[in-house]
Amino acid sequence: MALLQEFHGYWAFLLIILNFIGAVWGLLAHWRGWPLPRLYWIIIILAQVAVFPQVLAGIALWLSGARPGSGWQHLIYGVAAVFGVLVGLFYRSRMRLRPGLLYGMVSLFIFFAAFRGLLTGHG
């Protein structure tokens, strides 16, 4: 269980960093009219896919009896991050002309959810 807790903690940092980069880059690209290169899309895919191992690790920890210091509040942020990914998928076709705005906002939402989850997870 200690290894899983360690993974969950370190993966949170990866999730936060990737989504911060995706948010800043996407929003700047939208506001400045910059094209989004392939590297941006790699970061976005990694940032959004990274949510799921984090949530699965959290569920596994919960099922094994581990509880975050803040209780239910920590769990809400995990649900919010998954919700953010799903909202991005839902709006993907509707906002295809503004991908920097869409994925920048989704990454910003996931960044804040993951950051708050990190803060509440340590009690």
Characteristic terms for this protein:
mainly alpha; 80% helix
Mean pLDDT: 94
Structural class designation: mainly alpha
User: How large, in whole angstroms, is the Cα Rg?
Assistant: 15 Å
Which stretches are low in confidence, meaning pLDDT under 50 for 5 or more residues running?
A: none
CA(first)-CA(last) distance? 18 Å
Number of helices: 5
Helix content: over 70%
Give the domain tally.
Answer: 1
Give the amount of beta strand, in percent. under 5%
How many runs of DSSP E, i.e. beta strands? 0
Largest sheet: none
- Topology pattern, helix = H, strand = E: HHHHH
| Tertiary shape | elongated
Fold and architecture overview:
With 123 residues, the protein is mainly α. The chain has one domain. 80% of the residues lie in helices and 0% in strands. The protein has helices spanning 2-32, 38-49, 51-63, 72-91, 99-121. Helix 1 runs antiparallel to helix 2 (38-49). The longest helix is centred in the first third of the chain and has 31 residues, at 2-32. 32% of the residues are buried.
Task: Please describe the topology of this protein.
Layout: H1 2-32, H2 38-49, H3 51-63, H4 72-91, H5 99-121
Helix pairs in contact: 1-2, 1-3, 1-5, 3-4, 4-5
In brief:
With 123 residues, the protein is mainly alpha-helical. Helix content is 80%, strand content 0%.
